[in-house]
Design goal:
This protein folds into 2 domains: about 60 residues, Winged helix-like DNA-binding domain superfamily/Winged helix DNA-binding domain (Arc Repressor Mutant, subunit A, Orthogonal Bundle); about 45 residues. The protein contains 5 helices and 3 strands, in the order αβααββαα. The protein starts with 12 loop residues before the first helix and ends with a helix.
């Protein structure tokens, strides 16, 4: 698992780490049942406090993304993955509705809008 943290980000360290773990779970990079590093090892790897990693793990467990098993470790759980994916789709739908509204407002046809989206989507894939 490759976690990148920034000291210049507005987001707190725990939030940066938590969001990257969530994204890795949603993208399938961390599959259900995968054993996560121990709090101490993870903190050492990232050079952060064990309290930071404890907070990340506690919040991820409360949200259903991971599960701790005494004496065994902390594992990826599939609990809220579908719910989170659906909420992210909903956010994209809202943004698309706004784009469609603006396109109609400015006289842009559906075909032109689709062509723009195809180009932008392909450009994003090549990044």
């Amino acid at each position: 698992m490759n976690i990148l943290i920034s000291n210049v980000s507005d987001k707190p360290l725990y939030q940066q780490i938590k969001e990257q773990i969530k994204d890795a779970i949603l993208k399938g990079e961390l599959a259900e049942g995968v054993l996560l590093p121990s709090i101490r090892n993870f903190a050492n790897d990232l050079q952060v406090s064990v309290l930071t990693i404890r907070r990340v793990y506690d919040e991820l467990e409360q949200e259903g993304f991971i599960a701790s098993q005494a004496g065994r470790g902390t594992f990826v759980s599939a609990g809220n993955i579908e719910l989170l994916r659906d909420s992210k789709r909903h956010l994209v739908e809202i943004q698309l509705q706004e784009a469609i509204h603006n396109a109609k407002l400015f006289g842009i046809s559906k075909d032109e809008l689709n062509a723009m989206m195809d180009i932008l989507y392909e450009e994003e894939e090549t990044k």
